[in-house]
Specification:
Oligomer: homodimer
CATH topology of chain A: Rossmann fold
Structural class of chain A: alpha/beta
Order of helices and strands of chain A: HEHEHHEHEHHEH
CATH superfamily of chain A: P-loop containing nucleotide triphosphate hydrolases
Strand content of chain A: 5-15%
CATH class of chain A: Alpha Beta
Number of helices of chain A: 8
């Protein structure tokens, strides 16, 4: 948007080199990182976003949700603070690799600790975009849904270290997007995210 | 190389669609997977290949060697058969993601089990190319080098389950490339691999 720099200051060869190392934003990789309580709707939103972005047809996209991650990266890890941190950092490593190679990573994890989320942001940001989406559905709403019956088990003490009940959830300090599923439809939520990605030029205008 | 198919059988729109899902080989992702004994030279060759491919300047490349993998993906895993299999499959998962997004993954791991290597090959091949490089340096040569002092420790029983001494190494059945570091310089070895990648059209002629 700025003025054109005169040739002595920006040789075309130099500009061409710069373009190689820093692709235009719509061609850069980026990660969308959903965080929120169990039952907040983050996995469903992540899958809808995946479908929405696949429809555009011009990018490779990988979904890294809790189930995929525990299967492929963290089969032996539990839910202690230490293991949760290791788990999130592995996701961060894979997401940053995807972004480095120009792809889109959609992550959906409880990721309850701000420090761990910050580390993922750092890892990914060195290669491309990072958009944190806090799915802020309240504990009361999540617990009343309890689609997997996990809250009941957590209240009964059968499931230990359950985020929101017996393990903390630290609210994100500076998420790029906040979605309260009580106030909007899933379709509206996806549109908010796509609008943000477009505003940041990670997606081209359509 | 085949004859041109007449228009009724291949609409340009269809061809354009196919090109999207199957990029021309020189733009496809691929993995080069080095396997061999400890001290065989696979990590050194992997690093040289990384440098050689980075020089070309047109691709993103990730090196996944034993140290990087144990740090980012498998900090808690040991060297039992079960843990080695899990470790290799994690590398396979990350490599296949890199390849899916059009990147180049260079892996260097002992990877002693044929079954595990086959699984990695399957995971990666569904997204792009897979070139297995067996670094066939003999146990005697590896042990005589013993740059990390590990063979001495393995012989003394201090290091357990050490491949080649107290744990098996299954020779690859159908590797794309075999490198015996006794018969060629590292530079020659890299050229053999680059030639193979070029012959398979994963790298463009230069």
């Amino acid at each position: 948007m700025g003025r054109t720099i005169s040739r002595w200051a920006s040789y075309p060869e130099g500009v061409a080199e710069l373009k190689k190392s820093h692709a235009p934003r719509p061609q850069q990789g980026f990660a969308v990182f959903f965080t929120g309580l169990s039952g907040s709707g983050k996995s469903s939103l992540a899958k809808m976003l995946l479908a929405k972005l696949l429809e555009r047809g011009d990018r490779t996209i990988t979904l890294l949700d809790g189930d995929i991650v525990r299967k492929h990266l963290s089969s032996e890890l539990g839910f202690s603070r230490e293991h949760r941190e290791i788990n999130i950092q592995r996701v961060g490593f894979v997401a940053s690799e995807i972004v480095k190679h120009g792809g889109i990573a959609i992550c959906a994890l409880i990721a309850p600790y701000e420090s761990a989320r910050k580390k993922v942001r750092e890892m990914v940001s060195s290669h491309g975009g990072f958009v944190e989406v806090y799915v802020s559905t309240s504990l009361e709403v999540c617990e009343s849904r309890d689609s997997k019956g996990l809250y009941a088990k957590a209240r009964a003490g059968i499931v230990k270290e359950f985020t929101g009940i017996s393990s903390p959830y630290e609210i994100p300090e500076n998420p790029e997007v906040v979605i309260d599923t009580k106030n909007c439809t899933p379709q509206q939520a996806i549109q908010i995210i796509v609008d943000r990605l477009t505003a940041e030029s990670f997606l081209a205008q359509q």
